[in-house]
Amino acid sequence: VFEDEAQRRRMEPAVRMAREGLALLRNGGVGVCAPREEDWAFLRSLCEPSVEAAWRAGSPPFAEVRVDLRRRMDAFVGTVLAEHAHEEGEGEEERGGQMTVTEERRSPPGTSV
Question: How does pLDDT run across 57-80, given as a tens digit for each residue?
Fold first, then answer.
């Protein structure tokens, strides 16, 4: 994933903290997945109507190149989360062309569902 050894060493603390954060979320019963198209549609629905109109027209800030970059980044994040889940022994499933981390739902300590 890294360009070279120097970049790996430089990014190692951030990667370690991200993994620890994911573990804390997982231990708290929170699953994490990359944004999917329906997630972005929901966010757009919360915006002014002009935002949805710009999206539909492919107008700035939703030019084709930006939309493509966002989809590629979401796919990358999905892959990284899936790899992390695999390393941690969690389940993985393909969902809408993206990898979604899945896990058993647990109640927070001291609560019941």
Answer: 999 999 999 999 999 999 988 988
For residues 96 and 34, the answer to whether their CB atoms sit within 8 Å is no
Give yes or no for a contact between 91 and 84, defined as CB atoms under 8 angstroms apart. no
Spatial distance between the Cα atoms of 45 and 77, rounded to a whole number of angstroms: 23
Q: What is the largest CA-CA distance in the chain?
A: 50
Length of the chain: 113
**Confidence class for position 41, pLDDT limits 50, 70, 90:** very high
One-letter amino acid identity for 27? N
Closest listed residue to residue 74, CA positions, set 19, 31, 35 = 35
Q: Cβ distance 92 to 86 under 8 Å?
A: yes
Separation of alpha carbons 75 and 80, rounded Å: 9
Q: Could you give the C-alpha distances from 57 to 7, 36, 49, in angstroms and in order? A: 39, 20, 12
